[in-house]
Amino acid sequence: AQTVTQSQPEMSVQEAETVTLSCTYDTSESDYYLFWYKQPPSRQMILVIRQEAYKQQNATENRFSVNFQKAAKSFSLKISDSQLGDAAMYFCAYGDNNDMRFGAGTRLTVKP
Amino acid sequence: GAVVSQHPSWVICKSGTSVKIECRSLDFQATTMFWYRQFPKQSLMLMATSNEGSKATYEQGVEKDKFLINHASLTLSTLTVTSAHPEDSSFYICSARVGGTSPNEQFFGPGTRLTVL
Fold first, then answer.
1. Which of A31, A99, A101 is the best mutation test for B, with the most CBs of B within 10 A?
2. pLDDT digits (tens, 9 = 90+) for A74-89
3. What part of B 83-102 touches A (C-beta under 8 Å)?
4. Interatomic CA distance for residues B90 and B84, integer angstroms
């Protein structure tokens, strides 16, 4: 079964600084996607970034980028120039043709 | 585009009653919808996967007679919590997948908070 592990329950970053959230996963599939979702206090799940497993190039979306290491099954999220609005729960997720599995989440605090 | 709505957003019910939660894809047709449960400060746990016109597939440990799922059309799936008890209190989130798109392009609803007294 596919599993997703986030080993950092909480992280803190100073405003304007950079922070990296870690995620590892386990799968025997070859075709899959990886995602980072943000869940603010409203609890609406917001897609931050996605990575196709067959692509070697790391995905980037403005201040958000990933470090995808397929062989190591690692998928970390880097947030640059952190803003107060980035404070939220961040979930790493694995998805294939069947369904999506989520990690336990990392609560990110941004200090002004 | 790709908006998913849930109704109600918040419901309180008495123990022993049934509650229905609706999940709608507003501007696309969803061949597959997913139901998740999230306890406070925890992750999303997949409860079941429903495909339009067929029976839902439940995850291990989820009581199918307790959590009835119906996916009658390409834009609507419902979750009915039957004979609700306080331990069923939780945040329920649905998501919808567009048919024919890349794997797992899921769009999430805003969630429904259920409190059973």
1. A99
2. 999 999 999 999 999 9
3. 91, 93, 95, 102
4. 11
